[in-house]
Design brief:
2 domains; elongated; homodimer
Chain lengths: 232, 232
C-alpha cells in the first residue's frame, strides 16, 4: 500500500507485520464471505498465524479489525483529498467539490490494482448499522471531508432538511455500491460499464451533481398511503 | 400478501402452504443473516418443517428459493406498474416514467408494513452476480419494465452507450439500496431521512431524474491513471 499521508510507518516491527498480515486476510475474507460470516480463527489461519488467538491478541473485537480496514482506506483517501482541496481553483463549481468526494476513492482503488477487496468491505460495513458508525467516525468526520462537504453545501442553500439528509444518504449509497460493484466485476472478470476508474469517477461526479441540483418536489402526503395510481 | 396481479392462487393445498411458509422463513433469514450464510436445514426449521429435506424437496437449489422471493416482489410490483402506465397522462414527462420505476416498489413495501425483509433480500441478491441474473430475468425483463424503460429512454436520446449503461447501473444501485436501508431502519427503529414511503419515493424520483438529465462530461482518459490532482 503506497503511504500517501505519511501514517503507519513502514519497515517496522514483527508485531506490525503480523497486524498487517491479519488486516490483509480479514479484508479479503470479509469481502468474499461477509463480515458476519468470518471467524477470528479463519482470519488467523489465512494470515499464517499458528496461534488461534493471534487475531484476538492483536485486535480484540471485530470492530477493531473493521476500524483498521477503514483506516487503511482513510489514510489513502485523506491525503489525496487534502491535495485536491489545496489545488482547487474554482470553489464556486459544484462538480469540483463533488470531485473531491469521488476521486480520492477512485484514485486509491485504481492504485490498489486488481484484485482489491477494500471497496466491497466498505460497502458491507455500510449495511451494518453498528459498523457504519465506524465509517462515519473514521472517514466521514475527517478534516478533508468536512472541508469538502462544507464547500459543497455552501453551493446548495435552502434544501429542506429531510431532502438534504435523504440526498446525503443516497449519495453515500451511490458511491459506495458503485465502487464495490466495479471492484467485484474487475476481480471476477465481469462486464463494467466504464472502462477505467477515471471514467467511473466522471460518471459518478456527473450523477451526483445531477442528484444534488435536481429540483425538489415537496410532498403533501403526511400519512402512509400509496400514490393514487397504486391504490387497489 | 395482497394479491394484486392475480397470480399464486390463494386458499390452496397443504403443499402450497408449506412452500409459502418456507419462502417466508427464507426471506427473513436471508435478510438477517445473508443469503450465503443460511442453510436449507435452518430454513426448514424456521418454517416449522420436521423433515430436514423439506426445503430441498419443495425448491431444490437455493436459486429456486431466491426466484420464489423475487417473484413475490414482481407479482406485486408488476400489477402496480401496469396500472400506473395505463393511467399515465403525459408520456413526455421524464419524472412520470421514473415514478413508474420507483412507486410500484415503495407502494409495495409500504403495504407490507413493518417489519419486512423483501427489500433487504433484493439488495443482497443484487450483490451476488449469479443471483442478480435472476432479478434481471424475473423483474427487469417484465412487460411493465420494458414499457417503462422504453418510454424513459425515448426522452433521453443520444447518451453515449457507456454513459447509458453506467447510469442504468447507478439507478439500480440507488433504488435497491435506498429501499433496503429504509426497510432496515424501520425494522430496527433507526433514523430515516424521509418520514413516509411516499416521501422516499419523491426523493428517489427527483434524484433519478437529476441523475439521468445531468450533463455528460466525456473523458479523454483511456489509460488507468489518477486525475492530475491525485498524482504523487
Amino acid at each position: 500500500m503506497v503511504n500517501v499521508a505519511g501514517r503507519s510507518p513502514r519497515g517496522s516491527s514483527r508485531a506490525h507485520e503480523t497486524r498487517e498480515a491479519i488486516v490483509d486476510a480479514a479484508e479479503r475474507l470479509f469481502a468474499e464471505h461477509g463480515v458476519g460470516d468470518v471467524s477470528n480463527r479463519q482470519i488467523g489461519q489465512a494470515a499464517g498465524q499458528a496461534n488461534n488467538f493471534a487475531v484476538g491478541y492483536h485486535f480484540g473485537a471485530k470492530a477493531d479489525l473493521v476500524r483498521a480496514i477503514v483506516r487503511r482506506y482513510t489514510t489513502e483517501t485523506e491525503g489525496r483529498r487534502l491535495r485536491m482541496l489545496d489545488e482547487m481553483t474554482d470553489s464556486g463549481d459544484l462538480r469540483a467539490w463533488v470531485s473531491c468526494l469521488v476521486r480520492p476513492a477512485t484514485g486509491h482503488l485504481d492504485a490498489l490494482g486488481v484484485p482489491s477487496w477494500r471497496a466491497r468491505c466498505l460497502a458491507q460495513f455500510n449495511t451494518v448499522p453498528a459498523l457504519r458508525q465506524i465509517i462515519v467516525d473514521e472517514s466521514v468526520a475527517t478534516p478533508s471531508m468536512r472541508r469538502t462537504l462544507d464547500g459543497m453545501f455552501r453551493l446548495l442553500p435552502g434544501l429542506p432538511p429531510e431532502v438534504h439528509a435523504g440526498r446525503g444518504d443516497m449519495s453515500r449509497l451511490l458511491v459506495v455500491h458503485t465502487l464495490a460493484e466495479r471492484e467485484r466485476a474487475l476481480h471476477e472478470g465481469g462486464p463494467t460499464p466504464r472502462t477505467t476508474w477515471e471514467a467511473t469517477a466522471l460518471g459518478l461526479i456527473d450523477a451526483l451533481a445531477g442528484l444534488w441540483l435536481a429540483p425538489v418536489t415537496t410532498s403533501t402526503v403526511t400519512t402512509r398511503t400509496d400514490p393514487p395510481a397504486c391504490v387497489d
